[in-house]
Design brief:
alpha+beta, 7 helices, 3 strands
Length: 150
């Protein structure tokens, strides 16, 4: 019978030969990718989007998600996720799930779309400029009214 430390060895295998650092890193990356695919398959579909596998060591599975509400829902369903993962060799000793919130660094903003000034609004601006006593404000309103698009 294997002990819980066997899991640490599966995820922590490194080669001691000189010059094999790159190969060891690539092997670790492939193992991490396979583990992430297994974890994402065990997570319910509505929670899998925006959730990432971070690590698994000493029986503790660490996941990261992009918002707190998704993290809470994952915590409520952690036992069914662990039960599903324990069927795989890599995760048979998982006994704890730690869920972190890691928001996206930035979101792509849509390009600003300026709406052209209508003739009716330009007419109203000119009318308001005619009723204004302040000379500077009147000039600004007339200049804005001149930005009408045909």
């Amino acid at each position: 019978m294997r002990e819980k430390n066997d899991q640490k060895m599966i995820f922590g295998k490194t080669s001691s030969r000189p010059g094999s650092t790159l190969k060891a890193l690539l092997t670790k990356a492939e193992l991490h990718q396979q583990a992430e695919q297994l974890v994402l398959a065990a997570i319910p579909d509505e929670l899998a989007d925006g959730t990432r596998f971070v690590s698994c060591s000493n029986g503790e599975l660490v996941l990261a998600t992009d918002n707190a509400s998704k993290a809470t829902r994952l915590r409520f369903r952690q036992h069914e996720v662990m039960e599903s993962l324990r069927q795989h060799e890599l995760f048979r000793f998982v006994w704890k799930v730690k869920i972190k919130v890691s928001p996206l660094r930035f979101r792509a903003r849509p390009a600003m779309k300026s709406t052209p000034l209508s003739k009716e609004n330009a007419r109203l601006l000119k009318e308001e400029a005619g009723h204004t006593k302040d000379k500077a404000l009147r000039e600004v309103l007339e200049k804005l009214a001149g930005h009408v698009q045909d």
